[in-house]
Design a protein that fits this description.
The chain is built from ten helices and 13 strands. By secondary structure, it is of the alpha/beta class. The strands form four sheets. Strands 3-2-1-4-5-6-11 form a seven-stranded parallel β-sheet, with helices on both faces. A two-stranded parallel ribbon has the order 7-10. It has a two-stranded parallel ribbon with strand order 8-13.
Length: 326
């Protein structure tokens, strides 16, 4: 058995994927730059929790920036048994792309190209690469389920535009160099060890500290909240089933059950035993009013469907929160 390179290994989804790969006996090479976009202490804690249960030698971590293409290429050359990549590292977050646009092109365009070049130069040794895209590529829509064949040439944010670019680059590299590539469009992932910039985390923190929660578009938002364990199972299912050489596929991976943001607030109020103080805000630039994944392609090709409802997932998140923060 070869080994798997996981980029964004200290990130929310990346750490969960590393843990799942280690649990099934894989050797994992983790890459992350520990960017201070949010507190790196959380990222280090994810790594510590993961490596604390991993067999000796099963996990190797490298602190590297994806945009440093020479360092990334050197790492990929130096691992002779590397045969798969789960490229989950990225600069995430719609709102911060308004403040730090060059961080997004560095991580999501140049960084994505670093991985594609590393795979190309492996001369077939790396047999499959799964990479993270996003539901944001669909832009501002409220007309029902998003399907993979829908147009994605009208992104509402720079973050989304960089992810569209990643998909386009992947298509070109698969066609030019015979690579096997699979893109996964994630839909609003949440759960334990999550990201502090996400609504469910911000709401929990504010409610427990007696601060108001900020509801953009006055709370009139709908999201296809997807529990992280379901996402991990989908990532592994895709990773285990590469397309033929020169194949590039893109799939939605979401809960396929969009929920009003105010329902999430109500569930958190119940779980935390705190009534939220609500601050109604206008729509933020770059945000979209709704997301809704059609996941029939994932089910058809990999037998994958999400199984975790929002209340169950939030219950697990709150349990983790109380254990982590005390």
């Amino acid at each position: 058995m070869g080994s798997v390179l996981v980029t964004g290994a200290a990130g929310f989804i990346g750490a969960h994927v590393c843990r799942a790969l280690l649990a099934r006996g894989e050797r994992v090479i983790g890459l992350d730059n520990l960017t201070p976009y949010y507190d790196p202490a959380l990222k280090r804690a994810r790594l510590a929790a993961m490596t604390g249960t991993a067999p000796s030698g099963a996990f190797a971590f490298h602190q590297l920036d994806l945009s440093d293409h020479e360092a990334v290429l050197a790492l990929m050359r130096a691992e002779p048994d590397l045969d798969r990549v789960a490229h989950l590292g990225a600069q995430a977050g719609v709102r911060w792309s308004l403040e730090a646009p060059f961080a997004y092109t560095a991580a999501n365009v140049t960084g994505h190209l670093s991985i594609l070049e590393g795979v190309r130069r492996s001369e077939g040794r790396i047999r499959h690469t799964v990479y993270a895209s996003t539901s944001s590529v669909y832009g501002s829509r409220t007309d029902g389920a998003f399907r993979e064949e829908d147009r994605v040439d009208r992104p509402a944010s720079l973050y989304a535009a960089t992810k569209v670019a990643g998909e386009a680059m992947s298509h070109a590299y698969a066609s030019l160099y015979g690579l096997s590539l699979t893109g996964l469009r994630f839909f609003t992932v949440y759960g334990p060890w999550g990201r502090p910039d996400m609504a469910y985390w911000l709401f929990t923190d504010a409610m427990l500290k007696g601060r108001p929660i900020r509801l953009f578009n006055e709370g009139r938002m709908v999201r296809d909240f997807t529990y992280v364990d379901d996402i991990v199972l989908g990532v592994l299912a895709a990773l285990d089933h590469p397309p033929e050489a020169g194949g590039h596929r893109v799939y939605n991976i979401g809960n396929s059950r969009p929920e009003p943001l105010l329902d999430l607030v109500a569930i958190l109020e119940e779980l935390l035993g705190v009534e939220a103080r609500r601050e109604l805000m206008p729509m933020q630039p770059g945000d979209v009013p709704a997301t809704f994944a059609d996941v029939s392609a994932m089910e058809r090709d990999f037998g994958w469907r999400p199984t975790t409802d929002l209340r169950t997932g939030l219950t697990r998140f709150v349990t983790w929160w109380r254990g982590y923060f005390g």
